[in-house]
Amino acid sequence: MEHPEHRREPRHALEAEAVIERASGEKLSAFTVNVSGGGMLLQLEQPPTLEIGERVTCELKLYSDKPPQSWGTGRVVRLSESRVAIDFRDFGPCDSEPRA
Fold first, then answer.
1. What H or E segment, with its residue span, contains residue 25?
2. 11-45, pLDDT tens digit by residue?
3. Taking the model in full, what pTM does it have?
4. Is 11 exposed, middle or buried (0-12, 13-18, 19+ CB in 10 A)?
5. Domains and CATH numbers, the chain
6. Under a CB-based contact definition with an 8 Å cutoff, are residues 21 and 56 in contact?
7. Per-residue burial over 64-78, b = 16 or more CB atoms within 10 Å of its CB, e = otherwise
8. Cα angle value 44/15/83 (rounded, 5°)
9. What is the distance between the alpha carbons of residues 94 and 92, in angstroms, rounded to a whole number?
10. CB pairs under 8 A, 24+ apart, for 70-75?
11. How far apart are the first and last CA of the chain?
């Protein structure tokens, strides 16, 4: 039986290089699979060492002649094989926890 998806925002295909930075400063290379107004799905180059709930920041390289652009701070909400889903909703620039 197939379950319908109930997402807050539509997903959009976007192929770009990405960098995920952990609170420890470790950086992980990835590529975007899709993005939405509230998050993104990334394909990691290595199997994920991230944890559900972990806070990370993301940068995307959208232009070949410019440095990566900050996409924001979010929380890891799903992991599967070499993919990671990050939710950016409810995070401000200095928040350590999502707002209620």
1. none
2. 777 788 999 999 999 999 999 999 888 899 999 98
3. 0.76
4. middle
5. 12-87 (2.40.10.220)
6. yes
7. eeeeeeebbbbbbee
8. 25
9. 6
10. 71/18, 71/40, 74/39
11. 34
